[in-house]
């Protein structure tokens, strides 16, 4: 059985389906911040256990052969909004979970890291080179640093009884049943469909490595199934290609023309604290013969089709945006602590609600 921690999320919802298609028994452990919509239609084929990875009981690992850890806060805005929770979930909880696995004798442990670790920012032309897994990194942002610290702790645990594998993924794009519109290609598509135009900030000069969500899921399975000596203690970048943001915008526009959606590009040259970095994915290809295959254009057309099929065109819904949804949950949590249950009566002691009964003369 494969345990997918964070399996109801954006990548997890796709990965769970890929695992099931290959005949794996799957268990999902997830706090369900975003609900269970992403895995609802496969609920009868998996084991689902809601919970917080920071306080996971070791019994969750009973019968588990390998763990894929996708849990934690997953982008810069959420990490910067609550750095403490970000560090607890992304760094400390990863080490805690790995420790539980070692005690249970679970050897294969796959960890979801991020290529944002390589960010060099705009204005560092001398550092504007393609980086690989051996390149020195010194991430400063709360999110990327928490991932990097988790990597270091996992690698220090590698040994004869434990085989951690780290996947640094590029920015993800593509459709997921737990959809997100706060990722660059997905944001471009959302703006195109809802506004008729898309905006490229800072003139779109920055570089970004990208990969489709289906390719990301398949990369995890490739590392899961690989011979241990090829992956133990290794870091792999998962990248389809490196693109300037301006080029991404053009690719999205061209793909939409093929499905009769017209859209214009509006450049914005103001600085917005943008990230910029380029990354090589050659190690994964060389070591495991895995190359991401889903292009930006293919993913855009697939998203258009699935957004209509799943009715995910309510683009203002905060559920599709990680930071907006978490802020909404936090506000709701504060209110519920005062009011109690939304519909159950919060009444003084001794109050007895009226029980409505049909009168004797009522129609039967």
Keywords:
364 residues; alpha/beta; Rossmann fold; seven-stranded parallel beta sheet; three-stranded mixed beta sheet; 11 helices; globular
Distance between the termini: 54 Å
Radius of gyration: 23 Å
Instruction: Tally the beta strands.
Output: 14
Q: Would you list the SSEs in sequence order as H and E? A: EHEEEHHEEHEEHEEHHEEHEEHHH
Structural class: alpha/beta
Strand content: 15-25%
The major beta sheet can be summarized as: 7 strands, parallel
- Count of separate DSSP helical elements: 11
* Helical coverage, percent range: 25-40%
Overall spatial form: globular
For this structure, what is the CATH class?
Alpha Beta
Low-confidence stretches: 359-364
Number of domains: 1
Q: What is the third-level CATH name, the topology?
A: Rossmann fold
Q: Taking all residues together, what is the mean pLDDT?
A: 92
- The CATH homologous superfamily is called NAD(P)-binding Rossmann-like Domain
Question: What would CATH call the architecture?
Answer: 3-Layer(aba) Sandwich
The strands making up the biggest β-sheet line up spatially as 3-2-1-4-5-7-11
Structure write-up:
This protein has a single domain, classed as 3-Layer(aba) Sandwich (Rossmann fold). It has helices at 10-21, 76-81, 83-104, 142-157, 184-195, 213-225, 228-231, 245-257, 282-288, 296-310, 322-339, and strands at residues 2-5, 26-30, 47-50, 66-69, 108-114, 130-131, 163-169, 171-173, 197-201, 207-212, 234-238, 241-244, 264-268, 278-279. Residues 359-364 have low confidence and may be disordered. The strands form 4 sheets. A 7-stranded parallel beta sheet has the order 3-2-1-4-5-7-11, with helices on both faces. It has 364 residues and is an alpha/beta fold. The protein has 11 helices and 14 strands. Strand 1, helix 1 and strand 2 (26-30) form a beta-alpha-beta unit. Helix 5 (184-195) crosses helix 8 and helix 8 packs across helix 10.
């Amino acid at each position: 059985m494969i345990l997918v921690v964070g399996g109801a999320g954006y990548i997890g919802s796709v990965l769970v389906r890929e695992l099931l298609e290959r005949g794996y028994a799957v268990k999902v452990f997830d706090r369900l911040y975003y609900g269970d919509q992403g895995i609802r239609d496969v609920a009868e084929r998996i084991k689902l256990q809601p919970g917080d990875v920071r306080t996971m009981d070791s019994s969750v690992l009973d019968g588990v052969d390998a763990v894929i850890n996708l849990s934690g806060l997953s982008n810069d805005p959420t990490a910067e909004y609550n750095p403490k929770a970000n560090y607890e979930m992304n760094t400390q909880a990863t080490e805690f979970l790995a420790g539980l696995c070692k005690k249970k004798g679970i050897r294969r442990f796959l960890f979801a890291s991020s290529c944002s670790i390589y960010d060099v920012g705009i204005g560092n032309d001398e550092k504007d080179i393609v980086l690989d897994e051996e390149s020195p990194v010194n991430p400063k942002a709360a999110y990327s640093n928490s991932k990097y610290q988790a990597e270091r702790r996992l690698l220090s645990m590698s040994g004869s009884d434990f085989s951690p594998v780290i996947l640094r993924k590029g920015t993800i794009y593509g459709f997921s049943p737990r959809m997100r519109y706060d990722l660059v290609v997905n944001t471009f598509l959302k703006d195109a469909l809802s506004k008729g135009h898309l905006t490229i900030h800072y003139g779109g000069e920055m570089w970004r490595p990208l990969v489709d969500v289906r390719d990301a899921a398949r990369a995890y399975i490739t590392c899961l199934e690989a011979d241990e000596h090829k992956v133990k203690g290794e870091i792999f970048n998962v990248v389809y290609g490196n693109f300037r943001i301006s080029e991404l915008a053009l690719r999205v526009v061209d793909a939409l023309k093929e499905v009769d959606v017209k859209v214009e590009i509006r450049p914005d040259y103001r600085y917005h604290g943008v990230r910029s970095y380029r990354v090589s994915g050659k190690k994964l290809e060389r070591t495991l013969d895995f190359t991401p295959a889903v292009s930006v254009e293919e993913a855009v057309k697939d998203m258009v089709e699935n957004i209509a099929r799943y009715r995910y065109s309510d683009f203002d819904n905060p559920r599709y945006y990680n930071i907006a949804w978490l802020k909404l949950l936090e506000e709701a949590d504060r209110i519920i602590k005062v009011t109690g249950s939304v519909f159950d009566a919060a009444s003084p002691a001794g109050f007895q609600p009226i029980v409505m009964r049909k009168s004797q003369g009522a129609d039967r």
